[in-house]
Amino acid sequence: MRVLALSDSLAPWHSFWIRFGQYAPALSEAVEIGQTVEAIDRLGYGDQLLIYRYALAWGDLTARLRAARQRGVTILSDVDDYLWQANGWNRERLLGCTRVLRQCHAISCSTTALQLQLQVVRMQKALARVWHRFAYTSHP
C-alpha cells in the first residue's frame, strides 16, 4: 500500500504539518508528500490518498478522483477550519475544495459544528443527484 498526501502548502508553519506531516515519518507505510496532482494517477488498489485543503493550481480534480476511486484508491481529507468563511478563499477555490470533499470516502474534522457543515456539503451532492433524476424523469 502506498500513501500519497497532497497539500495546498508544504511550508513548515502550515497546518498540514501540524495535523499530519509531522507524524508521517512514524507511520508504518511510506508516505509521499507533495503538491503534484499527477501523482494521483499512479495510485492503485489499496492505496490511500489524503488531500489536505485545495490549491487552485490543481484545477477540477473530480474526474481524476473518480478514476482513482474506480481503481480502488481510498480518498481521505481533513478539514480544520470553516473554509467557506476563511480569508483568502474565493468562490473558485471553495468550489474546487467542495468538489474534492464530495469525492472522499472519509473526512476528519476538528469540531462538531464543522462536522455538521461537512454533512451539509455532502448532502447537497446527494440532493443534486436526486433532483437530476427527478427533473429528467417523466411525471404524470
Main attributes of the structure:
17% strand; 4 helices; 140 residues; 5-stranded parallel β-sheet; globular; 5 strands; alpha/beta
Describe the structure.
With 140 residues, this protein is of the alpha/beta class. Helix content is 36%, strand content 17%. The chain has helices at residues 15-19, 62-70, 91-103, 112-135, and strands at residues 3-7, 31-34, 48-52, 74-79, 106-109. Strands 2-1-3-4-5 form a 5-stranded parallel β-sheet. Helix 1 links the parallel strand 1 and strand 2 (31-34). The relative contact order is 0.14. The model is unreliable at 126-140 (pLDDT under 50).
Helix content: 25-40%
Quaternary structure of the protein: single chain
SS summary, helix count: 4
Portion in strands: 15-25%
Contiguous low-pLDDT stretches (5 residues minimum) are 126-140
The gyration radius over C-alpha positions equals 16 Å
Output the structural class.
alpha/beta
Distance between the termini: 51 Å
Please state how the strands of the largest beta sheet are arranged side by side. 2-1-3-4-5
Q: Which outline best applies? A: globular
Largest sheet: 5 strands, parallel
Order of helices and strands: EHEEHEHEH
